[in-house]
Amino acid sequence: MxxxxxxxxxGMMTLSTSLTPVSAEIAYSNSQLSALSLMSLSTITxxxxxxxxxxxxxxxxxxxxxxxxxxxxLEATNSExxxxxxxxxxxxxxxxxxxxxxxxxxKARLKxxxxxxxxxLFAKGYLIQRQYSKVLEIIEEANLLxxxxxxxxxxxxxASLNLRNRDQAELLFRQAVRMKPDEYEAxxxxxTMALQVRQMADAESYAVLALTKAPDETMVQYxxxxxxxxxxxxxxxKGNFDKAxxxxxxxxxxxxxxxxxxxxQNKTLEAxxxxxxxxxxxxxxxxxxxxxxxxxxxxxxxxxxxDLLSKADxxxxxxxxASYVRGLVSFELxxxxxxxxxxxxxxxxxxxxxxxxxxxxxxxxxxQKFKLAQRYLAPYLxxxxxxxxxxxxxxxxxxxxxxxxxxxxxxxxxRAVEAGGDAVNTGGQDPIxxxxxxxxxxxxxxxxxxxxxxxxxxxxxxxxxxxxxxLAAVYVKEKRFDExxxxxxxxxxxxxxxxxxxxxxxxxxxxxxxxxxxxxSFEEAVRRNQGYTAAKRNIAIALSAKEDYGSAETILREIExxxxxxxxxxxxxxxxxxxxxxxxxxxKFYRSAQRGIKNSGAMMADYAYCLLKxxxxxxxAQVASRNARKFNNDxxxxxxxxxxxxxxxxxxxxxxxxxxxxxxxxxDIQSQLLYGRALMRAKLYAGARxxxxxxxxxxxxxxxxxxxxxWYQAELEVxxxxxxxxxxxxxxxxxxxxxxxxxxxIKGEIYLRLLKFGDAELELERIYAAESxxxxxxEQLVEAKLALKKDIDAARLxxxxxxxxxxxxxxxxxxxxxxxxxxxIKRAINTYRSIFNLGIVDADISARLGRLxxxxxxxxxxxxxxxxxxxxxxxxxVITTAGLLELKTKRKPELAVDYFxxxxxxxxxxxxxxxxxxxxxxxxxxxxKALEAFKAAVKLSEDFPDFNDAxxxxxxxx
Length: 958
Hints:
Serine Threonine Protein Phosphatase 5, Tetratricopeptide repeat; TPR_rpt; TPR repeat
């Protein structure tokens, strides 16, 4: 095993310096939150004030979970108001949950909180979210009070520093010093900047200045400790970290730095106590995971270390010491693709680390990446040390053989022996002897099958079990099954107590689809070697081939529990779960398996499909689009990727993938059907018709009947708006021939478009009863009910759907619109409010709710409409709503005219905007203009709610 005890935790503070001053103050300051300053915003009850104060007391102690829980209880009592939301934002800010800060401030503003007074808090939320440009934009647009300028300057400096605008950041920090020379925060900023560029004397000077201003501030002590640790003053640094923790026990940064010092001092138990406290305060702290992984790897628990490092992947990728540990741990576990990834990161940053280079090359060799291995090996071999290093020379022999340069490879092997080497890799495995078998494998990897088999026959003549097994494995891959059986039988006879012969014989039977015989052979192998994981995996493969997925799952779960790094077992387990329709469980194992299996298009296609079926549409689309490029020569994988993309809105890319599949399989009818449907989804209707016409020609040439084709064609014609063509296909649409991807609601939709609402209702009720999860059938059925004036039935259907799918925003919006149409304004308002209660902040919904509040003369209308207008000031619907507010609530028709004219200029074809403009002109006694506007509305459409009133207004004005 590689010596993990020699890994020293140097340089951890490099990462800590990326936490800039305001970010640190937000997260770790021992300054106290107070709700008293918020009380002036509006009237609240004493009980509510007590709850808010108690919550902030928890936050000040670093107990964010209880602080947030207390505020949630207040929310559950329907007591939320401006104070509640701003207090929540303060607590979320302290807990560094920037997304929650933003949501809380948005809700406070909806309740009427002043935009300028909440701007600084809003900006800090975005600062935590690392949206630094947004931070600067918010502060620049706000009209801040003089008392807020100092803190705003610090926030801007922090954002500028993170945007790598160091000059601007320094200017702002110095400006803050001039504004408040007795405060410490700006000095912390200047110290951090100096530390980042290794100006250590300046960093310590600024840190000491900050200490003179605020010796009892936890982040001041922490910053000075950081500088001293960076300068090698570990005892002094630990003293500062001790003091920082004493001042504020929830200072996780100080605890992490102290833990790293304790680990280097081999005081593991003390370090773990600090880390336990960090986990209790921050359950997903990546630096804590890394430090725990170092402790685990030093103790030899590599699997635990690997699990911890996986959780800290974002940190590991950008922090060289953590990348190195992850690379070594993965290498020792045999996970060479992962080892390669992280060792390359280390070598890119530290090119003279020769041990890292050799470990990386070994990982590449074990993946047969010989060209890449040669690229990394060549510079080292040219050095004096590398030219005499037996491990490097041995690796060079393997690499050259793998590239087909067998004579050169042989010379390197001989030089390695002369240099005193006895191992082919850094782990001390594989003796340098048996050069012939090494060369044979290199020849086989290079595609020289006959030479490889000849060499293996020669090397196996000595009776070596290893060489016989290699020869048998090559026979299996080349489908020379009789020779493979003979070789496996020889292994069984010559080595009766060994398991390998039975495993290879089982592999032969498996390749011949003799699954029962294969299982018997694999079980014989396991009987001889209870720890023979490959044979156990093979049993599961054979069971899956027999469609006995439950038994396969049981075996694979046992393997995975014994070795969580067995990625092949994970992938097989995921597939077994997929075949049983257990999508979410399958996703979990595919997500883990892909870390170690990088070149399987079939696995990634299954992963994308399971993500889709599990409801993770966005991730499914990302996995499909990314891997479609990688596996663009695998038609089976491309079909699955295209299917996923079709379901997630990526129809254009799906057409490109299926066009490639068709080029691979020009005579395959199913591929043509899929291609045609993809073209339809991309609204390329002529292309889809051509594809379906090719299907008809292919079927005729092959003397086949494609019963599902009319369904595809009917779907196409409906989507293309050619309901006349779709009607002709109705007699051919039989339920038993409908493909799964075409909705059964398509017949009902044809009847709808033909205005045969009764037939549509009957057909859609039949389909919806059979497919109650079909959203398309629901929407079509609701449309039919509304056309038949069955509004109550339509509302009931939507309400029942939302009971099972409460987050379906489109259906909830449709239900609110239906309530409005029925005159149930209060229910419509409550339905729109429920959308906000789900945490969805949307300009369109705000505007729709605003219109209803205007109709009911609700005082909240102004805040709601203003909020919508601030979010989308160019949206015609929102602009019109702002005009209605001026017209009906504020009684300012002259301003309303301006809004309505803006809306018309952006969307001239919307009749009701002209109608509203007419009302505004009439209020201003501009009769001619009003008449013109009403006539324009009537001319544009008869299908808007106030059509009859518009006609009446015309009659009155004329």
